[in-house]
Amino acid sequence: MQATEIQALRAMIAQHKRYDILFGIIGLLATLVGVITLLALFIDLIMDGYGRLTPEFFTNFPSRRAAEAGILSAWVGTALVMLVTVLAAVPMGVAAAVYLEEYAPRNWVTDLIEINVTNLAGVPSIVYGLLALGLFVYILDFGQSILSAGLTLALLILPVIIVATRESLRSIPIAIREAAYALGATRWQMVSEHLIPYSMGGILTGVIIGMARAIGETAPIITIGALTFIAFLPPLPGAIDPATDQAAGLFDWLFSPFTVLPIQMFNWVSRPQAAFLENAAATGIVIIVATLAMNGLAIWLRYRIRKHIKW
């Protein structure tokens, strides 16, 4: 190779390195815009609402008196709705992903399903609310209940879980599958005893990220009829209802009216009094901390699981 060719090659490599550095700087600046914006909003919420973050704020029901109002019914409703969402979305999403990745034949039907699953991840949440209003509330007659809300949010995060699970399954080396088959394992044994345990970190990450999105959703919950003011909790199994003098059933809480943290925050923001705005800011802090905690948990679980996996 002549000296001029070597010099031209070095110049091309140096130019590509400059492009890499420039792209890295642009990516860093774009990331900082989002992080700084979130940090600024979070600091503003803390400045407005930190004074309301007392134990009584978490144990009191909403009230027309701002100083006595709390988020008891809202955070309990959020926890129960998230419980239904997890129980409905996780088994269905993981099973669908395993079928599409390991069992489904490669034909136009499978391609159509994959395209629709991918597109559903970008559908506005209000569309899911309208679907749930017609299906769960009116057709299946679940009413405006915790069950309807949980199933609605399960549909919302289902594409996220499916896509995350499929990507996690694809990341497993093909040698794992071939080794399992070589030792006489069936396809289900290979999936259940090798693929799913090895991909558990990615699956959990997808589930928690989906839950972090669902916990802050408002539009679909309002659509199916969540209450903006509720001063009671869903009935505990076995608790006596004073109105009917009967014990609540094991699953009666599923059909109870409810509210969630974003709707409680929306209710207080719509009030003109400054004290209610402080309550709304405190509720926003709770929502953001819960979301950040769930994302942090996803990162920690993925690290711990991958650390203990031995290929």
From TrEMBL:
PROSITE patterns the record matches: ABC_TM1
BP terms from Gene Ontology: phosphate ion transmembrane transport
GO terms for MF: phosphate transmembrane transporter activity
Topology term for the membrane: Multi-pass membrane protein
Boundaries of every ABC transmembrane type-1 domain copy: 75-298
Native organism: Sulfuritortus calidifontis
NCBIfam families to which the protein is assigned, alphabetical: 3a0107s02c
UniProt-annotated location(s): Cell inner membrane; Cell membrane
UniProt cross-references to Pfam families, sorted A to Z: BPD_transp_1 (PF00528)
Family, as annotated: Belongs to the binding-protein-dependent transport system permease family. CysTW subfamily.
Subcellular location, principal: membrane
Residue intervals passing through the bilayer: 21-43, 72-100, 120-140, 146-164, 195-215, 221-238, 250-269, 281-301
Gene Ontology CC: plasma membrane
Cited Gene3D superfamilies: MetI-like
InterPro entries reported in the protein's UniProt record: MetI-like, MetI-like_sf, Phosphate_PstA
Key word Zinc present: no
Protein name: Phosphate transport system permease protein PstA
Source organism superkingdom: Bacteria
Alphabetical UniProt keywords: Cell membrane, Membrane, Transmembrane, Transmembrane helix, Transport
